[in-house]
Amino acid sequence: MSEALNRLVDELTRLPGVGRKTAQRLALHFLKAGKGEVLALASALADLKEKTRQCTVCNNVTEGDRCPVCRDPRRDETRILVVEEISDLMAVEATHEYKGVYHVLMGAISPIDGIGPEDTKVDGLVARVGAGGVSEVILATNPNLKGEATALYITRLLKPYGVKVTRIAFGMPMGGALEYADPGTLIKSLEGRREVG
User: Fold this and answer.
1) How far apart, in whole angstroms, are the C-alpha atoms of residue 31 and residue 25?
2) Which CATH code fits 3-51?
3) Distance between CA 106 and CA 138 in Å, rounded?
4) Of 60, 70, 163, 170, whose CB has the highest number of CB atoms within 10 Å?
């Protein structure tokens, strides 16, 4: 292959879920595509990196200081749904059922991988709860060892604040990820949440 084509294939294989064959198919698609289509994709990628940042409140992706969820006056700010990643927030939002706000941890605690609480955005959650006005924190970390460790850690941190801490119900399969769950499963998981601690 040409050096340019090979370089693109190598870059595409860095994407999650994209193996070498898929990367080659995509690279060949871009090779056949019109220049405008390719430049539009390149521009969208550049805009993503230049114009977006984390919400100053919940860590969701935004182009301003606060994300659309945090700016929405119809949201119930007394309930915070805690998720590991932005993709988890997007999965819950796709149900159109949850009307509270979020806190994105940007990861999960995993001592075996060298990821401690300081590597997540747990401190921001504690600060939000400590500021008052929060009646419930819903833990929606993934139902795996990392998610459970993270949920337990957060539960212990929030206990002194007297806030109700619940965990989503396990309609979610053990070892599954929120971003891959169907809306019905997510709705049932939210409805069947239970208090922790």
Assistant:
1) 10
2) 1.10.8.420
3) 16
4) 60
Structure tokens at 86: 């932005």
pLDDT in tens, 52-106: 999 999 999 999 999 999 999 999 999 999 999 999 999 999 999 999 999 999 9
What is the rounded radius of gyration, in angstroms, for the C-alpha atoms of the chain?
A: 20
Q: What confidence tens digit (pLDDT) does each residue in 144-166 have?
A: 889 989 999 999 999 999 999 99
CA 184 vs CA 125, 144, 180, 193: distances in Å: 27, 20, 12, 14
CATH value of 72-195 in 3.40.1360.10, 1.10.10.10, 3.40.1280.10, 3.90.1140.10 = 3.40.1360.10
pTM listed for this prediction: 0.80
Cβ neighbourhood burial of 132 (10 Å; 0-12, 13-18, 19+):
exposed
